[in-house]
Design brief:
4 domains; Rossmann fold; about 15% strand; 16 strands; single chain; globular; pyruvate-formate lyase- activating enzyme; six-stranded parallel beta sheet; alpha/beta; about 500 residues; about 45% helix
Length: about 500
């Protein structure tokens, strides 16, 4: 029997919940009575229900996000049906706002809004002591980061071996981009760096080599950034990998010098561009120097070994398809390793809702609340752009078609790829579950039949991509076709065999 269970539905097995580990680390005397249970969203809610209730918990805390709200709602309904006496406590960004509109909130016993690192343990003490709070909605009391016990010791050996290790050197964000919940933060605050690096040392000693920093603004305070990077550089190994999220227009010389010291394959930067349109940036309260951002991206690409993952968003208020195309082309010219084309989502609680009426922002009423149309982009165009984003992920960001992609994009990256995207959907009617072999064959058809690239050139580049992909099955167009000389030789050989066969038959009949 475990009195308290902390649970969530992760998007994939290799993800881990840093939030649940913070909650457990700060349970105080209740830590030994508390356990973490992580599942994935593909699991059947009824199976998750069974596994949770096997421990006969008195309290179940569920972490709710935009990607798991549907499945978690089903889970809560089942838990309450089977075991109504089990107390359900919800937390996480998806339930911290607009409570009156959510069925999951109506079914739960309590909801903690905001950072629940300390609030959850306080609530559990009250509940276990028979003193239930009078209010269902509990607003977390602000606290100093120095009050938190760091949770990194709660990563298991299995986590370290097979799953992502999320870490954070700071919390919050000083910027006010209205599509992001970080717009509600007053500032970014660092953890005590000595204590944090001590925890990183312990993780490193246990074998952790992949560290994904979730800080919104890793390079906000350059002195801190350099100290953290120097810590890992001193422990560099062939399998060490670090992921940081960078502010694109802030890359001073001291940070550049540090970045240059990291070897290939050890460093990845996630760089949020979102839009290159100054009018759109102003509408969403995004402060960004586009010229500096472009120069910094170019510098990282051409003067370091860092892998660049750059983000753009489709559907921001005030942006039409031409504006997005111009931004995409500008970013493509800078040649980041990946361009993540995201679709705008209406996260509960974000200031973005102030643009809903003026810009006719229409969102999917179901998770993930993606944008359906705006005053500048109608529904059908938005669907085209959704397909563009999906095919871009499949073809470009997969890294499997590096040579062929050059032929597709040609002189205008957006125009070249939207034509391919439209053609792929016309031919297949699918944006998912396209087998890799079939994708090779489709690209061959498109380039030779629609893009007027010669069969010889198309086959040559796709052969290189195929060899690099490691795909065992061979598309039909890559199977060597016999030359005319080989065909004539094979024909003569067949004729000789047939003649010998006839002659042999004649001898047998004479005998």
């Amino acid at each position: 029997m475990t009195p308290i269970i902390l649970a969530t539905l992760n998007a994939r097995y290799f993800h881990t919940s840093l939030g649940l580990r913070y909650l457990l680390a700060n349970m105080g005397e209740l830590e030994s009575d508390t356990a973490i249970r992580e599942f994935i969203i593909d699991a059947r809610p009824i199976d998750v229900t069974e596994k949770l209730l096997l421990a006969q918990p008195r309290i179940i805390g569920l972490s709710v996000y935009i990607w798991n709200i549907e499945q978690t709602t089903q889970l809560v309904a089942l838990l309450k049906q089977v075991s109504p006496e089990t107390i359900i406590v919800l937390g996480g960004p998806e339930v911290s706002f607009e409570h009156d509109k959510q069925p999951i909130v109506a079914m739960a016993d309590y909801v903690i809004c905001g950072a629940a690192d300390l609030e959850f343990s306080a609530l559990c003490r009250e509940l276990l002591a028979g003193r239930p709070p009078p209010r269902k909605i509990i607003n977390a009391i602000p606290f100093k980061l120095s009050e938190l016990k760091l949770p990194y010791y709660l990563y298991s050996d299995e986590d370290i071996k097979n799953r992502l290790i999320y870490v954070e050197a700071s919390r919050g964000c000083p910027f006010k981009c209205e599509f992001c919940l970080s717009a509600l933060d007053k500032s970014a605050k660092p953890f005590d760096q000595t204590a944090f690096l001590n925890e990183m040392q312990l993780l490193y000693e246990r074998g952790a080599r992949h560290f994904k920093f979730i800080d919104r603004t890793f390079n906000l305070k350059i002195k801190d950034s350099i100290r953290i990077m120097a810590f890992f550089l001193a422990r560099m190994s062939d399998d060490l990998f670090l992921h940081f999220e960078l502010i694109p227009d802030h890359l001073p010389e001291a940070l550049r010098e540090m970045v240059q010291r990291f070897p290939e394959g050890s460093l990845q930067f996630e760089v949020g561009i979102q839009s290159f349109n100054p009018e759109v940036q102003a509408l969403i309260s995004r402060r960004q120097d586009n010229e500096k951002s472009a120069k910094n991206l170019s510098w990282i690409r051409n003067n370091s070994h860092a892998h660049i993952h750059a983000d753009l968003i489709i559907g921001l208020p005030g942006e039409d398809i031409n504006s997005f195309a111009a931004g995409f082309n500008r970013l493509a010219t800078l040649n980041p390793h990946e361009i993540q084309v995201g679709i705008l989502k209406r996260l509960r609680g974000t200031p973005l809702v102030r643009h809903t009426e003026e810009y006719e922002m229409r969102y999917n009423p179901n998770p993930p609340y993606n944008i359906l149309s705006t005053s500048r982009i109608d529904f059908f165009t938005m669907q085209r752009l959704n397909r563009f984003a999906r095919y871009w992920e499949m073809i470009s960001n997969s890294g499997r078609f590096r040579k062929a992609l050059v032929l597709v994009l040609a002189d205008n990256a957006f125009d070249g790829f939207i034509r391919l995207s439209d053609w792929l959907f016309k031919e297949t009617g699918q944006t998912h579950r396209l087998a890799l072999k079939r994708l090779f064959e489709l690209l061959h058809r498109y380039l030779t039949e629609e893009a007027d690239v010669s069969n010889k050139e198309t086959t040559a580049v796709l052969r290189q991509d195929h060899q690099a992909s490691g795909l065992s099955s061979v598309p039909a167009f890559l199977i060597e076709q016999p030359s005319q000389q080989q065909k004539r030789s094979a024909k003569r050989s067949l004729e000789r065999r047939q003649a010998r066969h006839r002659a042999s038959g004649e001898k047998e009949s004479c005998a």
